[in-house]
Design a protein that fits this description.
With 153 residues, the chain is mostly helical. The protein has one domain (2-151). The chain has helices spanning 2-31, 40-67, 74-77, 79-98, 108-132, 140-151.
């Protein structure tokens, strides 16, 4: 029985953390390629949207993994904070990585866009988990409880 419980815990971790690892690898591979230059206006807009999108997904996936931990504690209670911090720290490491890629440079503005994306992803995550828990339409007092849990209050 204990072996089965350990196997379930492993599968659960893989289910929640596997997509985080896969997404981090995708970001790493994408930032390992040299720039393809488009027009200046389109390039900046597309680059900013790409940063926002990829870090919104990353923050959401980290939030999902932390929020659904079996042992509810410090990391689960403040899942939104740790997801935001994790996404930003990965964004910083990605910019450092880009300093070593030919034709790529580190840019502080990209980290700012990563932060905007992380915020969007977390907002989406809180809305999703609030509504999936059945509390979204159940009334203000129950909804407040779920939001407080998401925000660690």
């Amino acid at each position: 029985m204990k072996k089965q419980k350990g196997s379930l815990a492993y599968k659960r971790r893989l289910w929640y953390w596997g997509p985080v690892v896969i997404w981090i690898v995708i970001i790493f591979i994408g930032s390992s390629h040299s720039n393809v230059v488009l027009s200046e206006t389109h390039d900046n807009s597309m680059k900013n949207l790409a940063h926002i999108g990829e870090y919104a997904i990353l923050a959401f996936l980290i939030f999902r993994a932390l929020y659904n931990r079996e042992e509810k504690g410090f990391f689960s209670k403040y899942a939104w904070f740790w997801a935001f911090a994790g996404a930003i720290l990965y964004g910083v490491s990605d910019e450092i990585h880009q300093m070593f890629v030919p034709t790529r440079t580190a840019y502080l503005g990209d980290i700012l866009m990563d932060g905007v994306g992380a915020g969007v992803g977390l907002l989406f995550g809180i809305i999703v988990y609030t509504s999936l828990s059945g509390k979204f339409l159940a009334g203000k007092s129950k909804n407040d409880k779920v939001i407080k849990r998401c925000l660690g209050s």
